[in-house]
């Protein structure tokens, strides 16, 4: 509950560019990011800045108003690590821009190799229908192996630990908060004495990782400065030795097969 002089419903908008930062304050630090087509509610606009809520996870922040456009119904989402938007259905055409995994698009028609959207043409092999959800969040996250680490990042151009987990879970139709402390509080049930399995989550203070198999983690981390696999025991010991503390929780999610 908050106190304010007035409350508004919020105007529906979406992001018009490949990726943008959600800021703590106008011109301030990055908190998280949103990508093309992200559904946003604008609550206030002032001096070229909009205070918005990302509808995917409820995260709020400031974004430059000129990066927003009228909301449109999306039909498809980019499910490859990244793709290109072309002015015509021709791979040799000069691309208009790059799009990240998770970008939402309105497909108008589908040809032999390209899908026509209201923004241009995208290889249809890089898209899936919005209602055709994935089933393994780790498989989704593994498409981002090698993506550079970026604190607060949520795209194929740069991503952090909680951004990676969120990318995987949202693709599977599972609600997921934006930050690792929120994820630890909201996701799954304690693993207890059970052995880890693919899809489990390991948490530290300020960090989260997927379990890829009984002996391996997948996470976006500063040690590799990228999304990478790392031995589970090796990671637990390394993180403790560098002074970031022990594992604070091990969680298991209920995943739809």
What does this structure look like?
There is one protein chain. Strands 18-23-19-20-21-22 form a six-stranded antiparallel β-sheet. The protein has a five-stranded antiparallel β-sheet with strand order 6-5-4-1-7, with no helix packed on it. The protein has a three-stranded antiparallel β-sheet with strand order 11-8-15, with no helix packed on it. By secondary structure, the protein is mostly beta strands. The protein is globular. It has three domains: 11-70, SH3 type barrels, CATH 2.30.30.40; 76-129, SH3 Domains (SH3 type barrels, Roll); 137-252, endopeptidase domain like (from Nostoc punctiforme) (endopeptidase fold (from Nostoc punctiforme), Alpha-Beta Complex). It has helices spanning 137-142, 161-171, 180-186, 232-241; strands at 11-15, 19-23, 30-35, 39-46, 49-54, 60-64, 68-70, 76-78, 82-85, 97-100, 104-105, 107-110, 114-117, 120-123, 127-129, 154-155, 158-159, 189-190, 201-204, 207-213, 216-221, 226-231, 249-252. A hairpin with a 3-residue loop joins β12 and β13 (114-117). The model has no long low-confidence stretch (mean pLDDT 96). Keywords: Hydrolase, Protease, Thiol protease. Residues 131-254 form the NlpC/P60 domain. InterPro entries: NLP_P60_dom (IPR000064), Papain-like_cys_pep_sf (IPR038765), PG_Endopeptidase_C40 (IPR051794), SH3_16 (IPR041382).
Question: Can you lay out the helices and strands and say which pair or pack?
Answer:
Blueprint: E1 11-15, E2 19-23, E3 30-35, E4 39-46, E5 49-54, E6 60-64, E7 68-70, E8 76-78, E9 82-85, E10 97-100, E11 104-105, E12 107-110, E13 114-117, E14 120-123, E15 127-129, H1 137-142, E16 154-155, E17 158-159, H2 161-171, H3 180-186, E18 189-190, E19 201-204, E20 207-213, E21 216-221, E22 226-231, H4 232-241, E23 249-252
Antiparallel strand pairs: 1-4, 1-7, 2-3, 4-5, 5-6, 8-11, 8-15, 9-10, 12-13, 13-14, 16-17, 18-23, 19-20, 19-23, 20-21, 21-22
């Amino acid at each position: 509950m908050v106190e304010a002089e007035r409350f508004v419903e919020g105007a529906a908008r979406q992001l018009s560019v490949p990726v943008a930062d959600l800021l703590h304050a106008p011109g301030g630090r990055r908190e998280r990011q949103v990508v093309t087509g992200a559904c946003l509610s604008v609550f206030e606009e002032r001096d070229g800045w909009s205070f918005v809520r990302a509808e995917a996870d409820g995260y709020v922040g400031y974004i430059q108003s000129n990066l927003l456009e009228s909301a449109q119904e999306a039909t498809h989402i980019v499910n490859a690590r990244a793709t290109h938007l072309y002015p015509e259905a021709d791979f040799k055409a000069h691309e208009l821009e790059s799009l990240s995994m998770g970008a939402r698009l309105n497909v108008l028609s589908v040809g032999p190799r390209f899908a026509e959207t209201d923004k241009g043409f995208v290889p249809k092999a890089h898209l899936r229908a919005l209602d055709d959800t994935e089933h393994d969040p780790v498989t989704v996250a593994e498409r981002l192996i090698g993506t550079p680490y970026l604190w607060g990042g949520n795209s194929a151009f740069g991503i952090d630990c909680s951004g990676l987990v969120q990318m995987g879970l949202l693709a599977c139709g599972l609600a997921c908060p934006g930050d690792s402390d929120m994820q630890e509080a909201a996701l799954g049930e304690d693993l207890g004495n059970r052995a880890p399995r693919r899809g489990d989550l390991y948490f530290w203070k300020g960090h989260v990782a997927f379990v890829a198999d009984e002996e391996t983690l997948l996470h976006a981390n500063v040690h590799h400065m990228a999304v990478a696999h790392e031995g589970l025991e090796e990671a637990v010991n390394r993180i403790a030795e560098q002074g970031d503390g022990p594992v604070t929780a091990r969680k298991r999610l209920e995943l739809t097969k």
